[in-house]
Amino acid sequence: MTPATSTQWPGIWLSFLTGVVAAIAVTKASPALLAMQQELQLSIMQIGWVMSSVAAGTVLLGVFAGSLSRRHGPKNILQFALILILISSSFGLVIDSPNQLLASRIFEGIGVIFISVAAPTLISHLSKPSDMGLSMGVWALWMPVGSVMVFLLSPLILKHLSWQWLWAAPAVAALPLLFLLRFIPNIERQLSNQHNNETPTGNTGAILLALIFVSFTGIFFSLVTYLPAYLVNTYALTKSSALLVTTILPIFIIPGNLISGFLIHRGLTPTQMMAFPALAITIIFSLAYNFEYSTSVGLAFLSSLGFFLGMIPTGIFAQAPRMASKSFDIGRVMGITITGQGVGILLAPPLAGYLIGEQQQWSNLYPLHLLLAVLIILLLKPLANYQPTKQ
Q1: Average pLDDT in the 91-115 region?
Q2: Following CA atoms 157, 56, 361, 287 in sequence, which dihedral angle do they give, to the nearest 10 degrees?
Q3: The model's pTM
Q4: How many helices (H) and strands (E) does the chain have?
Q5: Is the separation of the CB atoms in 137 and 314 below 8 Å?
Q6: Domain residues of the chain, as ranges?
Q7: 3-class state of residue 206 by DSSP
Q8: Which CATH superfamily does the domain covering 9-181+201-385 fall into?
């Protein structure tokens, strides 16, 4: 498929909205767990697994999702993913045990991985090369925008309805998008006609991006999973107040996404755009975990951490299409890259729960967060030097 000569923004925004649905499905566990913990008698380790189990499908099916997107077209995969989320999230209305909760979560995760691979693949084909930084900056907003919506609306849902209705929220959001997706341009035939020459799945550039994604999602989800509980237990905040404070993190990720996309559009490479934020994150963690500070300074740390974190996924998604040897292979590269996101979500929350322990030792998270931030810095040099083999 030849690169687009003009950027089709309506299709890009609709693709982005499918990502918001996926983000709601992933992030809803954090505020819901505050209500579920007592009703379902969940331990702090079980809380971590409930959050992370949504990523099981990503780890197992990431590359497969990329191949499906390539063969059947990203638009068809998006429609299937929304149907899957609609069904599995609706099941939340009748959940009454941890096993049912985990089963619902795993099936939701399959829908999430299909969206997180197919949507940026479709966006890359709807965007002309010079606009790739801007369009991927838009796509990178999917997780923070969905997270902000969850943390802002969940206090109202939990107060007037129940956590079961919060669990079913992605189904409500998915329903209108199933209709609106019909207006996205069809590129399936153009893509499917070119998949005869199979390329190897072992793409070094994509693997490096996947490892960076492991680090990013490990930081974000270990924070967003336990931050409400930390604020309730340490500062005696109400659940509603803790959720509002937690919203600061994804809110400040949004301007980080947008500014990163703009700077890439203006000429910075995606790897350059990730380097400084990764260094800033390392410094913030070192200060936050090792010094005493006031509440206002703590809020400044949280907001600045969100801002610099937000620059990294934009760089990842802008770099991913450059790792494909041919344009029709972008879906496969996205699949490998997104697998890293799944590994981070799957492993970081339960690992963080283990480190915190039932004694609530929150400072034990420092080595984990420092290691993940430094790993991003170390991976950027080989990524910047990697050139895909053109076929």
Answers
A1: 79
A2: -90
A3: 0.74
A4: 18, 0
A5: yes
A6: 9-181+201-385
A7: helix
A8: MFS general substrate transporter like domains (1.20.1250.20)
